[in-house]
Every structure is written in C-alpha cells, then in structure tokens.
Write a structure and sequence with these properties.
single chain, mainly alpha, Growth Hormone, Chain: A, two-stranded antiparallel ribbon, 16 helices, 1% strand
C-alpha cells in the first residue's frame, strides 16, 4: 500500500502553519497529507496495539513452554534444550534487522506487517497440523514430528522478523513529533504498548500454557492461529485511519555516502564556523533537519563545500548535508550503547530457559486440585513489568516532569541504566534462591513461590530497560530507519540469547575440564550448579554497568531544529542549543 502512493503529495494544498494537517512527511491511505483529526494518534494506535497483543500471546505461549517440550516430549538433555531455545530466540530476535531494513527501504511498514503476519499464521497452522495429525504425532514418527515442529517454530521466527520492527514503528508513526501534544502521547505510547504486550504475555503463559498441559499443544495452536487471524482482520479494518510512510530505498545508502564523501575530502580543513557546512533550506524539504554536534568531527568533512576553479563541486557521493552527517553520527554512536546492553540481553535469556526449568522441579501445587504449569511461572515477570510501566507512566514520570520542568521524566539512557541495575539484583537473588534449593533436604518440596522475587525483579528491570531500549532505538535513529531501529533493539535480546548459549558452552567446558569431571551443568538441575552461573552473570552485569555509565554519560542525543524552520544562522544556533538542552533531560 505504502509503496504505491508516493506520488500523491501534490493532491492537496497544505498551509505549513495549519495544525489541521500533519506535516511530518507521512501520508494518508490516499497518498495525501493526513488530516490530523481523522488519522493517527490513539485512534489509529489502538488497532496496532491489538495485533501486538495477539502476537505476544502466540510467541510467549510457545517460547515459555519450549524448554519443557524439548526435554519432555523430544527427550533432549537440559543443556542441549537450553541451547536450542537460545538459538531459536536468537534467530527470532535477529531476523527483525532484515524485516526492519525491508520495511524502511522497500515494502513499507504496513505491507511488511501484513506479509509477515501471514507467514507467522502459516507457522501456527503447521504447528497445529504437526500436533493433530495422527501420523505426525511424536509417538508415531519422532523424527518427522521434530522436523515439522522446528519448521513451524522457525516460520514463526521469520514472521516475527517482519512483524515486530514494522508494527511497533508503524504504531509510533501515528504520532507527530512536531506537535507538542502528540509528542507527549508518543512517550506514553511506548509504555502502553508494553502493557498490551505484557497482557498478551500474561495470557500466553497462563491460559495457553494451561491448554498445552491439559488439552494438548494442537488445541493451543488452533486457538493461537484463530486469535492471530482475528487480530489481523481488526488491523486491516483500521487502514483508513493510519498515517503511512512512503519507502525511499535503502536507508543505509545515505550513511555510506557520508562515509565516502568524508574519506574523499579527508585532507580538507574544517571551517571554524559550523554554519559554513552545507545544509538544504528548511522550506525546501519536508524532512526534519538536525542540529550540528561536535562529536565525530571527521565526518563533518562530508559537508564541506569544495570549490574547483570558482565552481562548487557537488554530487551525492561528494557532498552531504549536515543532517545526513548527523544521522551517520547517530548510527555510529549507537554501537557502544548496543554493546553495553548485551549483558542485559544475556540475563534476559535466563528467564525463558533456566528460570522456567527451576520452576518445573519445584512444588507447584496451589491447593489440592491444581498444579501450576512450569511455564506459567513466567507470568510473575509479566506482572512485574506491567506494574513497573504503569507506575512509571502514571506516577514517577509526571512527578519527574514537574521536578525537572522537561517533557521527559528520566532521560532514555538513565531509564535503561535503572533497568540494568534491577536485572543484576535479580541474578543475585536467583543465585541465593537456587543455592537454598540445592541445600534443601528435599529440593522438590521447595515451593515455586520462592522464585517470585527473581521473576518480579526481572519484570521490573524489563519495564525500565526494555521500554527504554525501544524508545532509544526508535527515537535516536534517522527518521528513515525507524523500523530498522526497532530491529536493533530486538537484536540486543537476540545477540544476548546467542551469547548466553556460547557462555553456557564455555562455562561447561571450563568447569567440567573438557568433560573429565562434573561441571556446572549436569543432566538435570539437581546435579548442576546453576547458582554459581547466576553469580557469574551478576558479576558480569556489575562490570558492564560501569562501562554502560561511562558510555551513556558521553552520549549526545539527537537534536532537531524547532519546527524545522531557521530564520537565520544565529537563530538556528539558538534553536539547536534549546533543543540540545531539552534532550538532556
């Protein structure tokens, strides 16, 4: 849809100062500048949030039971099952890099959501078939069942790869950054997006897991497929209310052009006055212009105008605008932040693997007639995240806004840092609880509710860190890369899961002396030393938190010229200074 409507901008005359129209380069379903009252904002975002609810319902209904399914049904050893879960999680959370690239550059976000949801739905249908067909059941043909099972869950991975980055950024696109009220609404959007996400998680790890335990995986897969199909229909029903972005080709090309132009002009001297660097006139472009910063100054050479015999030398690969240079700086500055959040991704991977496995070997009885399914213990993390997000949005953030006078409570990177600190405490608590379980005379009689503190602390940490990461990678990337930005956020979790698998392998090899002795990971939890592994993760987290603080304090936030309009150079400097001050809050 988005790719077909690039030529409609001229169909409506829009007064640049008329707030009835949205002037952020988005278009409505007919390719015209959107009417603010009829499109976007919460009226459109609610359609989008609903399909995210159903996707998280499906994903966590599968993900949290996967460890149990692999060990009990497919008879895999605990460490191999943990590796398979981590590899699947890695693919699922790294695929959004591909999906985000395609959504931003070629397919458009709406179309990417549509196609990826259909792929996701096909995976759920195949999963149901593999469970319900008598000839495909594991007791009849384990190898064939295992093959179809993995094909089905990896189709879900591919579907998630397009669904997650495109849907979340498409939802955020419904709010205009240039409109004060909608800009504040967008800050709440990320909070309530995650509340809907957690609601899906909560039902996924309770109702869906209960169906898997008591009725069967086939029945659960049928329910998930039906819910996903219904939510897709609701998503399509809102198409007239959406604001769309027209894809403009590879979002990486402008970044490469800046690097090439800077390398070609590496011998030139930078002007003393940054206002002498090349920039387009604000009135000639609908895109937002960025303010110049002093970080990575060598890239500024890409915006130096060359003169050859009195003539200016131009060309896409020889001259870049200040905005293009600043966008390149933003992407490069994200690399240290991304690296510094990887240990958080490693700790997050433990919740759906070893935390769940711990719950499976503890006393899960809730009264004489009900036993809590192991995967349902994940609900405690979802509850922790819902509480953290709601308290932050309704209590903490308004208080901090009044205290600081800024639009935002905590800065994005501070919010992430708080979340990382909570997950470190969660690892220490998990280590203490696991040590107590191992020392218990009867480990199986220890109540599963001993795990509540570590799940809640991880949920609270996610409420700060995950929401902060989403907002950071959406807000701080160039406007043309926002789906890819969400893919970068998800890649933190994906790379963390992959690194968790590699860390398990390395720790197992070292502690078992290459298999010659008993290591930290035995065939079951009672013969393992999971408590020591948790302490190792806590120590890694503490060291990394120091690194993160150093990187975060040196980071310069994106600063946008107010309204995209600069009266003169001096006024532009004042606007940029004001924007930089606001971004620091």
């Amino acid at each position: 849809m988005e790719g077909l409507r690039g030529g409609g901008h001229g169909e409506a005359a829009v007064d640049g100062g008329d707030e009835r129209w949205v002037e952020d380069s988005s278009v409505d379903y007919q390719g015209r500048p959107p009417l603010r009252a009829a499109t976007g904002s919460w009226k459109a975002a609610m359609f989008i949030i609903l399909i995210e609810f159903s996707e998280r319902l499906s994903y966590f209904g599968l993900a949290t039971s996967l460890m149990i399914y692999l060990t009990k049904v497919l008879q895999e050893e605990m460490k191999f099952a943990a590796k398979n879960v981590n590899y699947w999680t890695s693919v699922t959370t790294l695929m959004p890099l591909v999906g985000g690239f395609l959504a931003d550059g070629y397919l458009g976000r709406f179309s990417t959501v549509l196609f990826s949801t259909l792929i996701y739905l096909s995976g759920l249908i195949l999963l149901a078939i593999s469970q319900l067909s008598p000839r495909l059941k594991p007791e009849r043909n384990l190898h064939l069942h295992e093959t179809l099972f993995f094909v089905a869950i990896y189709l879900v991975s591919v579907g998630t790869g397009g669904h997650k980055p495109a849907l979340e950024s498409f939802g955020a696109d419904q709010f205009d950054d240039g409109h004060a009220a909608e800009r504040v609404q967008k800050m709440s959007y990320f909070n309530w997006w995650n509340c809907a996400l957690c609601a899906g998680v909560l039902l996924g790890v309770t109702v869906i897991v209960y169906l898997q335990e008591k009725v069967g995986w086939g029945a659960a897969a049928v329910v998930l497929a039906a819910v996903m199909a219904a939510s897709l229909a609701v998503f399509l029903a809102g198409w007239r209310h959406y604001r769309y972005r027209v894809p403009e080709g590879s979002p990486l090309t402008p970044l490469v052009r800046v690097l090439v132009a800077a390398a070609r002009k590496r011998h030139l001297h930078l002007p003393a006055d940054a206002n002498e660097l090349y920039e387009v006139k604000p009135q000639n472009i609908k895109r937002r212009l960025l303010c110049h910063t002093d970080q990575l100054r060598f890239l500024d050479k890409a915006a130096v105008v060359e003169h050859d015999g009195g003539e200016e030398r131009r060309g896409a690969w020889r001259l870049a605008t200040v905005t293009q240079v600043e966008e390149t700086k933003l992407v490069l500055a994200m690399v240290p932040i991304w690296v510094a959040t990887l240990p958080f991704g490693i700790t997050a991977a433990q919740v759906s693997t070893f935390f769940i496995k711990q719950g499976s070997v503890m006393d899960r009885r809730m009264g004489p007639h009900f036993t809590l399914p192991p995967a349902s213990t994940f609900a405690m993390a979802a509850i922790g995240m819902i509480v953290a997000v709601a308290v932050y949005d309704k209590v903490l953030e308004p208080y901090l806004r009044r205290l600081t006078g800024g639009e935002r409570g905590l800065s994005i990177l501070k919010r992430i840092g708080v979340g990382i600190a909570f997950t470190i405490v969660a690892m220490a608590v998990a280590a203490t609880v696991e040590r107590r379980r191992l020392r218990s005379a009867s480990p199986a009689s220890m109540s599963v509710f001993w795990l509540v503190p570590q799940f809640l602390l991880m949920g609270i940490g996610d409420g700060f860190a995950l929401v902060g990461l989403q907002e950071y990678f959406y807000d701080q990337v160039p406007d043309s890369m926002r789906s890819l930005g969400i893919g970068l956020y998800l890649s933190v979790i994906g790379a963390g899961s992959f690194l968790s698998s590699q860390l398990i392998t390395a720790v197992d090899r070292v502690t078992s002396h290459g298999g010659a002795a008993a290591g930290w990971f035995g065939k079951d939890l009672n013969s393992s030393r999971l408590d020591l592994f948790y302490w190792l993760l806590a120590c890694i987290g503490v060291a990394n938190l120091v690194f993160y603080v150093v990187v975060a304090t040196r980071y310069s936030y994106k600063t946008v010229m107010a309204g995209g309009k600069v009266v003169d150079d001096k006024a532009g400097d004042i606007e940029c200074a004001a924007a930089a001050a606001a971004a620091a809050y």
